[in-house]
């Protein structure tokens, strides 16, 4: 049975369309359609039906999905287990990272990694921390670098790597920028821009307000922190951003509250680890030790 057929099936089930699946797998739409047809012929069952201008999965497809996921995870475990018998470190390493970590913390370490292990093909997925967390849990990613959640999941391993100081910021011409001795009570009178409430960074911020019985005026939300920085810089409200993102277009507010978030790595202890992943984890630990 052709593994590429399963990959195409999984991609269509995850994205909901042939076109998006083709983008995800870097294939043409006819190639995806051909693989789905081939899988249906192999299994002698109809997996998708026409629905308007697209397709929709049949009951058989929904029943097949968890089995395909499990089989592909088992297959990856087999490959990872066999890789330990090889002296050379290579293969594909699927990892996830939040945009902020990928842009501001990972480049130097990944540069060192690819120079040390040129036979490893890095498959880097830029996703929100919450999505990366779930992808490691489901086995879609072998490891991920993300904002660590306020509550750890007992099924996963967490390795803190960086402390990220958060600061309250506004545009220099904002009314709050002209005030001194600010308190959280002063901020709730003005609109703010925060990531979506389910994000770990937003949870850290909202918890600080909730402890005082306060609720910020969040009139807009967007997850990429770089986007929030731009919206704050044009005067749409205040926000909470990592110190690394504060530039000349923003000013930090003198709020007597220290907020921090932990950035780190997440792995799944129940999955067989590839040698490529083990090498990256070891490099992370080495860099962390050197920084102490």
If you had to describe this structure to a student in words, what would you say it looks like?
The chain is an alpha/beta fold and 292 residues long. It has three domains: 3-82, Winged helix-like DNA-binding domain superfamily/Winged helix DNA-binding domain (Arc Repressor Mutant, subunit A, Orthogonal Bundle); 87-161 and 263-290, Periplasmic binding protein-like II (D-Maltodextrin-Binding Protein, domain 2), CATH 3.40.190.10; 163-262, Periplasmic binding protein-like II (D-Maltodextrin-Binding Protein, domain 2). The protein is 44% helix and 22% strand. The protein has eleven helices and eleven strands. The protein has helices at residues 3-15, 18-25, 29-43, 59-83, 99-104, 107-116, 129-138, 184-187, 200-210, 225-233, 275-291; strands at 48-51, 54-57, 91-97, 120-126, 143-147, 157-170, 191-194, 217-221, 239-242, 251-252, 259-267. Strands 3, 4, 5, 6, 9, 10 and 11 form a seven-stranded mixed sheet that branches. It has a two-stranded antiparallel ribbon with strand order 1-2. Helix 1 (3-15) crosses helix 2 (18-25) and helix 1 crosses helix 4 (59-83). The longest helix is centred in the first third of the chain and has 25 residues, at 59-83. The protein is globular, with a radius of gyration of 23 Å. The protein starts with a helix and ends with a helix. The mean pLDDT is 89.
